[in-house]
C-alpha cells in the first residue's frame, strides 16, 4: 500500500483510478473520441482530406468530461493549452519531477485498463508491437514461433516491404539493439527474443484525432513518443524503447490541384498524405504528365523523414531539394492541436519542419507540394574495373578526370549516383548506376561527357557505356534507380556521409587534397556510394531550414564500413574506424562541408554544425517554443542535447534500447 499511496501522490488521479476501477462504461458518442469538423478550409488553400476532418476538438473533450463512464480518464487526453484541469497542472509537475520518461514496468506506466480506454477512444487502432524477428524464436515472451514465417523472413530480410508493412520494424536494425534479429539462414534462431529498443505500442493512424489523442496522452503521462512512417531511418529515429509510436504509413491520399494559388506559389500541386512513398508520388505525377521530387529509393516516405531532413533527388538540380517542394503542411503539434504551417501562417514552424529533421517539431499529416513539368532524361550506365588492360593508375586517372568535372556536370543540371569499391589491394570497381542527364538528348549528353570519354580512350580504357533516352522521368527512373538493391535489413556494415562543397573544387590544389581523402576512403571502406549533385537555387533565400552545406554541394559521399564481427565490440570498432580513418580525413578537408542528417553516421561529431550549420540556433529556439515539454525526441535531433538514452552499450554504439532521461 505504501507504494500505491506514493504513486497516488505523484501521478495524476486518472492513472491511480485506472489501477482500481472496474471497466468503464461508454456511450456510443465517446468511442471513438472524435468529431468530423464542418469546415475543410485551411490556410494551406487546399481542403483537408476526410482523414484530417476527423479531429479531437474541445467539444470532444467536453463530452468526455461530461460522460460519467469516462470522465475520470478525460484529463489524459486534454490539450496542453486547455484551461481548466487541475490534473493537467499535476501532470506537468509529475513530468518535471521525473528525470526519465515513464517506461513499461515503472509504477506510473499506464495499466492495461488505461491502454484499453485509449484503444476504445482511438476506435481500435492500438497495436502491440511485436519484434519483426520474433517468429524465429522458441524463447520469447511473444510465444509466436513459426518455422514457416521465420523461413520467409530469412528469405526476405533485405526487402524493404517487410519492414514498412510492419508496425514497428527498422530497416537498419542495429539501432534498436539487435535483441531479436532475423537469423541469417534456416527457420529458427537460438537465443531469446526481447523487445529491446523497439517501441511498445503503435497507433495505426487513419485520422487526425488518433494522432491528437496519442500526443495528448503521451504528454500527460510522461510517455516516450515516436513518429514512424516506413522505418527507413538510418539512425533508429523512428523507434524508441518503451515508446508509444504514431504510425503514419496509412495516410496515403494524393490529390491533384491544377491551379493552386497562395501568396508564395502559383501552379499545379499535389496534396499528399504523410504516408505516401516515393514510387506512389512518382506514379501519380507521371499519370498527370508531370514530374515530382522524391528520393532514389522508391519506398522512402516522402513527407516523413525525407522532406523534413532535406531530401536529395535525381530532379533536385532542376527543382530544388525535397524540402523546397512543400508550400504548406498540416501538422499536429506537441500541445495536441492540429495546425497549418505555411510561409505566412505559423511561419517558424513551417521553416523548422522543412530541413530541421523528422520527429522533432510535430507530426505531419499532409503536405501541399509543387508538381513540375514533364522531364526528358538520358541515362547512361557503365562499370569500370581494373584488369590486365586497365591499371590501377589508369583507373584512378580516369575517375579523377570525371571527379574534377563535377562542377561542369552540375552546371549542366545533371545528377549521378555511383559506387566505388576496392575489391582487393590494387583492384577497384566503379559502377555508374546511372548518370542521370535530365533535359538532355543523347547528343547533348554525349557532348557534355565527351572530354571524359576521350580521356578514357587516351588511357586505353573501353567504357562500353549503355546510354538510353526516355521522354519522361518515371520510365527513366524505373529502368535505373527503381531497380537497384538498397541493401536494407543487415547490420554487417555501418554508414556515414560527407557533403563536399563547391569550395573543394576551387583550385587544383584543394581538388587534389580532397581527392586524396576520397581515395583514402575507398581504400578503407567497404564501399562508397557517391553522387554528383547540386540543388537548383530557390527564389527566396532561407525559405526553410535545410542545411546550407547541402545547398552548396557538388557531391555527397555515403561511406559504408564493414563490421568485423557482428557483436558490440565489432560494431563499436566499425563506427570508430569509420570516424577515424574514413570520414575523419574527409571532414578535415571540407571545413565548409557538412553531413546529410538523413543518411548520417550514428556518432557524427559536432552534429549540430554538421547537419544544420548556421541554422542551428534558430532551430533550437523554435524547438523550445513549439515543444517546451520535450515530447518529441530523436537521436541527434534539434534539442536532443537535453536528453540521454542509456543503453548500457548493448551494441557498442548508441541505440534506442534504454530509458530516455534528461541529461
Ligand atoms: C534504402 C534507402 C534509400 C534512401 N534514399 C534516399 C534518397 O535517395 N534521398 C534522400 O534524401 N534520402 C534517402 N534515404 C534516407 C531517407 O531520406 C531517410 O531514411 C528518411 O528519414 C526516411 O523517412 P521515412 O519517413 O520513410 O522513415 P521513418 O524511419 O519512418 O522516419 C524517419 C524520421 O522521420 C520522422 N517521421 C516519420 N513520419 C513523420 C511524420 N508524419 N511527421 C513528422 N516526422 C515524421 C520519424 O520520427 C523519424 O525521425 C534513403 C534511406 C534508405 C534506407
Ligand atoms: C541499358 O540500360 C537500360 C536502362 O536504361 C536497361 O534497361 C538495358 O537493359 C541496358 N542494356 C544493356 C545491354 O545492358
Ligand atoms: C594533383 O595531382 C596530380 C596527380 O596526382 C599531380 O600530377 C598534380 O601535380 C597535382 N597538382 C597539384 C596542384 O598538387
TrEMBL record:
<dbReference type="InterPro" id="IPR050416">
    <property type="entry name" value="FAD-linked_Oxidoreductase"/>
</dbReference>
<dbReference type="GO" id="GO:0016491">
    <property type="term" value="F:oxidoreductase activity"/>
</dbReference>
<feature type="signal peptide">
    <location>
        <begin position="1"/>
        <end position="18"/>
    </location>
</feature>
<feature type="domain" description="FAD-binding PCMH-type">
    <location>
        <begin position="194"/>
        <end position="374"/>
    </location>
</feature>
<keyword id="KW-0274">FAD</keyword>
<keyword id="KW-0285">Flavoprotein</keyword>
<dbReference type="InterPro" id="IPR036318">
    <property type="entry name" value="FAD-bd_PCMH-like_sf"/>
</dbReference>
<dbReference type="GO" id="GO:0071949">
    <property type="term" value="F:FAD binding"/>
</dbReference>
<protein>
    <recommendedName>
        <fullName>FAD-binding PCMH-type domain-containing protein</fullName>
    </recommendedName>
</protein>
<keyword id="KW-0732">Signal</keyword>
<comment type="similarity">
    <text>Belongs to the oxygen-dependent FAD-linked oxidoreductase family.</text>
</comment>
<dbReference type="Pfam" id="PF01565">
    <property type="entry name" value="FAD_binding_4"/>
</dbReference>
<dbReference type="InterPro" id="IPR012951">
    <property type="entry name" value="BBE"/>
</dbReference>
<dbReference type="InterPro" id="IPR016166">
    <property type="entry name" value="FAD-bd_PCMH"/>
</dbReference>
<dbReference type="Pfam" id="PF08031">
    <property type="entry name" value="BBE"/>
</dbReference>
<dbReference type="InterPro" id="IPR016169">
    <property type="entry name" value="FAD-bd_PCMH_sub2"/>
</dbReference>
<dbReference type="InterPro" id="IPR006094">
    <property type="entry name" value="Oxid_FAD_bind_N"/>
</dbReference>
<keyword id="KW-0560">Oxidoreductase</keyword>
